[in-house]
Design goal:
With 358 residues, the protein is mainly alpha-helical. It is built from 13 helices and eight strands. It has helices spanning 12-15, 26-39, 44-53, 58-61, 64-67, 96-108, 151-162, 176-191, 210-213, 234-239, 248-260, 272-288, 318-346; strands spanning 71-72, 80-81, 132-133, 197-198, 227-229, 232-233, 292-295, 311-314. Strand 5 and strand 6 (232-233) form a beta hairpin. The longest helix has 29 residues, at 318-346. The termini are far apart.
């Protein structure tokens, strides 16, 4: 089972790429939340969301799970929040009460996942992704790149908590407010193709099958984080929303139209996250189609951004980027539709509301 490196102090390369760990950028997560907010209007789900979030909303809170990455430890024992001025979307959470909430979340979701790759490779950072080989056509627990703490299981854990059901290890939620803001973020994450699928490459840049040939650390590309196009990695390029310039409200409107056409996920609610991961794995075919890879040289003092086991990409041209924009747009719309569906399923209209929620 793979665990991506999330320790921001490991290498100079990671320090130089602040978007390494994110899925969709803040705008993408906010668009997903805005679409879902519109789609649950007038429902019991909307009343529950307002009750749990108070004067905040899904759009504002959609980035909380990424902002919490600012909680770090220097000595491996104590935690502290380090506000980053580059992340303006996190400013609403820089007050003492919200900082306390973030530190508490990390304390409860820190070392429970077992072996990690560094002092800041926290358990909760694993909740955002799964690394199923792009050669697979669906998500399955036994595949290389899956884990009990991956995004599929994180979504199910949040759903269970919100439905007053037992929550499996290693997940820990302080209350339903926390579970809700994590759920909305993870539903956004799982729609991003490179948060569901990954390539596994050999030293010559050839795709290998980790399920048939075995998964080795040197073969992992970490959802495109180890694949570079100049000064930007492929994962970061897919985190960015579609590039066509459009006002936020207009983009949300376009996504809402698409979201209304997304068919509901069928089956038991506990199978939905795996179905969404499967859909993103299918979408990842476009993310890797037509690309070729060459191994980068080992790190040296003149080029600290070049580290071992990373590749350069060839073929990431304008045609590719246009195709990527189309896929991103559809995946963002799906995320909004899926978030609205799961919230309505957790709090259906045919169940009475408790007095405090009405």
């Amino acid at each position: 089972m793979s665990k991506r490196i999330r320790n921001l102090t490991l290498t100079a390369a990671i320090c130089l790429t602040p978007t390494l760990a994110l899925a969709w950028n803040p705008q993408g997560h906010q668009e997903v939340a805005a679409v879902a907010q519109q789609m649950i209007a007038g429902s019991h789900a909307e009343k529950w969301v307002k009750y749990l979030l108070g004067d905040q909303n899904l759009q504002l809170m959609s980035v909380w799970a990424d902002c919490v990455r600012g909680v770090k430890s220097i000595d491996g024992k104590t935690l502290a929040y380090q506000a980053n001025p580059l992340y303006t979307e996190c400013v609403p959470f820089n007050d003492p009460e919200n900082v306390k909430r973030m530190v508490s979340f990390v304390e409860r979701n820190w070392k429970q996942c077992g072996t990690t790759t560094g002092p800041n490779d926290y358990c909760h950072t694993h909740y955002h992704y799964t690394d199923v080989s792009n050669l697979r056509d669906h998500y399955q627990d036994s595949y290389a790149g899956t884990a009990r703490e991956d995004v599929v299981h994180a979504i199910n854990a949040a759903i269970a908590y919100l439905r007053d059901q037992p929550v499996p290890a290693p997940f820990s939620f302080a209350d339903k407010r926390e579970a809700l803001v994590l759920l909305e973020h993870y539903v956004g994450d799982i729609s991003q193709p490179l948060h569901a699928a990954a390539l596994y490459l050999d030293a010559n840049g050839n795709v290998i099958d980790p399920d048939a040939q075995g998964s080795k650390p040197g073969n992992e590309t970490a959802g495109g984080n180890y694949i570079w196009d100049g000064q930007k990695n492929l994962h970061a390029e897919w985190d960015a929303p579609p590039t066509h310039p459009v006002r936020f409200a207009d983009q949300v409107g376009e996504l809402r139209v698409l979201a209304e056409k997304i068919p509901p996920t069928l089956g038991d609610i506990n199978t939905w996250s795996a179905a969404w991961a499967t859909d993103a794995i299918h979408a990842s075919k476009a993310a890797f189609d037509g690309l070729h890879f060459t191994m980068r040289p080992a790190a040296d003092s003149e080029h600290p951004e070049k580290v071992a086991e990373k590749w350069d990409v060839i073929g990431d041209d304008d045609t590719y980027k246009g195709r990527a924009d189309a896929v991103k747009t559809l995946q963002l719309a799906k995320a909004g539709a899926h978030l609205a569906q799961v919230l309505k399923a957790i709090w259906p209209d045919n169940q009475p509301l408790p007095p405090e929620v009405k």
